[in-house]
Amino acid sequence: MAKIKLTDTELVTKHIEKLPKEIKPAIEYLRQLMLSIDKDIAEQIKWNAPAFHYIGKMKPFDPKEYKQDILVMNLRKDKIMCVLPTGATLTKNTKILESDYTDGRRLITFKDLADIKAKENDLKKVIKEWLSLVEK
Fold it and tell me: What is the C-alpha separation between 62 and 12, in angstroms, rounded?
């Protein structure tokens, strides 16, 4: 019998189900928040973590430039670290962006669900700016 391949959404759900119960509500809230920002944002598992990418039309690009990748969650014991592979291109609403990696990554760190809710509007602004910079 052929093995059924799970959808990206099913894979993300399975991943979240395996997380410690203390972090699940925060991750699920962040997941739904990201997906609600724009219809061209989709989810997947990337680098063994929940991630969000752009599924709309784009000009061709080198996959090593990660132009399609918006945000990848990196779950730590005491925080949710969100990596924006091309975050250095963002110039507005950057008060929640952290770090200054030479490869262009920027981070957004959340302590818990309350911290996500407190930074929600800033996160939406950052993601909307990211979407506005997509080369179509």
Answer: 26
Opening angle at CA 41, ends 59 and 94, nearest 5: 85
pTM equals: 0.91
- Residues 73-94: pLDDT tens digits? 998 777 999 999 999 999 887 7
Cα–Cα distance measured from residue 35 to residue 41, given in angstroms and rounded to the nearest whole number:
6
The DSSP result for the chain, as a single string, is: -PPPPPPHHHHHHHHHHTS-TTTHHHHHHHHHHHHHH-TTEEEEEETTEEEEEE-S------GGG-TTEEEEEEE-SS-EEEEETTGGG--SSGGG-B---TTS-EEEEE-SHHHHHHHHHHHHHHHHHHHHT---
Residue that is written with structure tokens 């809710």 in the block = 117
